[in-house]
């Protein structure tokens, strides 16, 4: 319970994982068996045959494009609203990202827009289960099948979500996930591929085994940040430390959380060599093992909070609340509302103790980074102008969601 000052996120990293980090670094820092154990446990959780740890989701995406035999000149359909690194990675190897629109309130790939984006060169589609919301996979899979297109699910924000009873990541040809500190589960940086295709699994495994480990310090640094964020977002600490820092920073036009967790958007001009020196280590896998034990509880708390917000905000005039495809069981990584005066609403909410963010996604269909692939999409453009992510993380309880709902009501009235 947050006593009226609610952070936008709180990491899932806890002292239990900090202990595991320390123990693994001391006792078995180079233990390959721990990595394999996490890969197998994670794949079993998803329901897939194979799991392969990778340093990042973007590198995982590159390895999958390669494993599936895509070449320069091929096309991949990517939702307009996504993380810049995914189209950047395709473009880096000459594969053309073709941007398709998302649903205005679902925020995920619109099956009709996907179909309209197909050309004779389309070889793959990336249904991105953004904000924890599963895409409408039945029509997407049907369209892909009809045109012989590979389905690579982007589960970076949706580990554990389901669609018609099946976990996302088990609905296409392969999938990737990522476990940074701001995600629903963390391995202190690191990511994963799952697939049921032995040839794809063998290809990405061979490529990962050809890479080298980076320094252990990265995990130590991430663990220190995770612990610091965990304490800074504690209900007894947050109101006197991070919240005032965010309020003051905001007045100066800065956001301390974005500065720590945001990343400069870039176009890669090839596969960065740093990706080849970041093979996941035992410490990441050991933390992952601990987190996967807790994932149902962590996601369960998100789902409880998300549903409470869905219900409480459904009839607030002036905002739009999220929608979900039939059969989608979201895990509420984010809870996104829309308002035409989003920035003013953000200020009003902060006055009422509720910290919010505009998030880290971009409208890649109309972005200077992807000039030669420009294909503007109206829903993605509207979402970029109007979206506001309100807190939904597992550390919140019913009192907090009630406080947020009341703060939204008052703030909407205040901005007019
Ligand atoms: C939807 C989505 N896809 C891909 C990525 C890239 O993940 P990574 O930083 O592990 O490359 C992210 C990162 O947050 C993401 O949100």
What's the SSE blueprint?
Layout: H1 15-27, H2 32-46, E1 50-54, H3 57-67, E2 75-79, E3 81-82, H4 85-92, E4 96-100, H5 111-116, E5 122-125, H6 137-147, E6 150-154, E7 162-163, E8 166-167, E9 174-178, E10 191-195, H7 198-209, H8 217-232, H9 242-251, H10 256-261, H11 282-313, E11 328-329, E12 335-338, H12 342-351, E13 362-363, H13 378-386, E14 387-390, H14 398-415
Parallel strand pairs: 2-4, 2-5, 5-6, 6-9
Antiparallel strand pairs: 1-10, 3-13, 7-8, 7-11, 9-10, 12-14
Helix pairs in contact: 1-8, 1-11, 2-11, 3-4, 3-7, 11-14, 12-14
The protein binds pyridoxal-5'-phosphate.
The site of pyridoxal-5'-phosphate (PLP) has 14 residues, from α3 and α4.
Cα radius of gyration in angstroms: 21 Å
Report strand order across the widest sheet: 1-10-9-6-5-2-4
Shape: globular
CATH class of the largest domain: Alpha Beta
Q: What bound compounds does this protein have?
A: pyridoxal-5'-phosphate
Number of domains: 2
Beta-strand content estimate: 5-15%
Terminal CA distance: 30 Å
Helix content: 40-55%
- Write the CATH homologous superfamily of the largest domain: Type I PLP-dependent aspartate aminotransferase-like (Major domain)
Mean pLDDT: 96
In total, the number of strands is 14
Structural class: alpha/beta
Largest sheet: 7 strands, mixed
- CATH architectural type of the largest domain: 3-Layer(aba) Sandwich
Number of helices: 14
């Amino acid at each position: 319970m947050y006593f009226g000052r609610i952070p936008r996120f709180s990491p899932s990293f806890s002292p239990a994982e900090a202990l595991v980090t320390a123990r693994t670094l001391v006792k078995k820092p180079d233990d390959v068996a721990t990595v394999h154990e996490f890969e197998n446990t994670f794949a079993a959780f998803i329901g897939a045959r194979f799991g392969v740890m990778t340093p990042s989701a973007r590198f995982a995406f590159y390895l999958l494009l390669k494993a599936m035999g895509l070449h320069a000149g091929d096309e991949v359909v990517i939702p307009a609203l996504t993380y810049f690194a995914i189209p950047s990675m395709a473009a880096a190897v000459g594969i053309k990202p073709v941007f398709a629109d998302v649903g205005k309130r679902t925020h995920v790939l619109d099956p009709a827009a996907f179909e309209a984006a197909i050309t004779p060169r389309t070889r793959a589609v990336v249904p991105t289960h953004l904000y924890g919301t599963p895409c409408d996979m039945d029509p997407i899979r049907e369209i892909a099948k009809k045109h012989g297109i590979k389905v690579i699910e982007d589960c970076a924000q949706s580990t554990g979500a389901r669609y018609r009873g099946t976990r996302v990541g088990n609905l296409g040809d392969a999938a990737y996930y990522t476990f940074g500190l701001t995600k629903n589960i963390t391995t202190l940086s690191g990511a994963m591929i799952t697939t049921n295709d032995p040839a794809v699994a063998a290809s990405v495994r061979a490529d990962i085994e050809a890479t080298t480990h980076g320094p252990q310090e990265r995990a130590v640094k991430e663990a220190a940040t995770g612990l610091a964020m965990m304490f800074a977002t504690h209900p007894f600490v947050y109101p006197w430390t991070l919240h005032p820092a965010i309020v003051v920073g905001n007045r100066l036009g800065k956001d301390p959380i974005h500065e720590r967790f945001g990343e400069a958007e870039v176009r890669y001009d090839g596969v960065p060599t740093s990706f080849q020196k970041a093979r996941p280590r035992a410490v990441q896998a050991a933390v992952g093992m601990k987190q996967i034990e807790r994932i149902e509880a962590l996601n369960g708390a998100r789902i409880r909070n998300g549903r409470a917000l869905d219900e409480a905000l459904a009839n607030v005039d002036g905002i739009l609340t999220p929608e979900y495809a039939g059969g989608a069981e979201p895990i509420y990584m984010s809870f996104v509302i829309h308002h035409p005066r989003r920035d003013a609403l953000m200020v009003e909410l902060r006055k009422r103790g509720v910290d919010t963010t505009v998030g880290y996604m971009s409208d890649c269909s109309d972005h200077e980074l992807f000039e030669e692939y420009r294909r503007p999409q109206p829903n993605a453009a509207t979402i970029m102008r109007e979206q506001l992510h309100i807190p939904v993380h597992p550390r919140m309880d019913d009192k907090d969601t009630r406080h947020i709902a009341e703060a939204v009501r008052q703030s909407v009235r205040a901005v007019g």
